[in-house]
Structure prediction request, 116 residues.
Amino acid sequence: QVQLVESGGALVQPGGSLRLSCAASGFTIHSYVIDWYRQAPGKEREWVGIILSGGFSDFADSVKGRFTISRDTTKNVVYLQMNRMRPEDTAVYYCKTTLGPGRDYWGQGTRVTVSS
Prediction:
């Protein structure tokens, strides 16, 4: 059974850092693309970043240079490291994978609040 479980969301001050985890089961993360998305209150869900099966990552302009994605294949976990955080980073963060046509899987999300 394919499952993604995010964790690590918290309240953090502006300028601070936070690392989110996306624990995967039912498939191996190094064989598939993992995306991170976020949804701020009252806004549509937006794409944050991606890590490809080969390890290449890319990010939305709004987070480029501040966020990184890594993975631990021994634990089957993908991480979203967020640095120099801003109030506009406040959102529920989701990870997603696509295992084939029409086979998207999402986690339940983890809430991040950036506030002083």
Summary: Residues 24 and 68 are 18 Å apart (CA to CA). The longest strand covers residues 18-25. The chain has no helices and eleven strands. The mean pLDDT is 97.
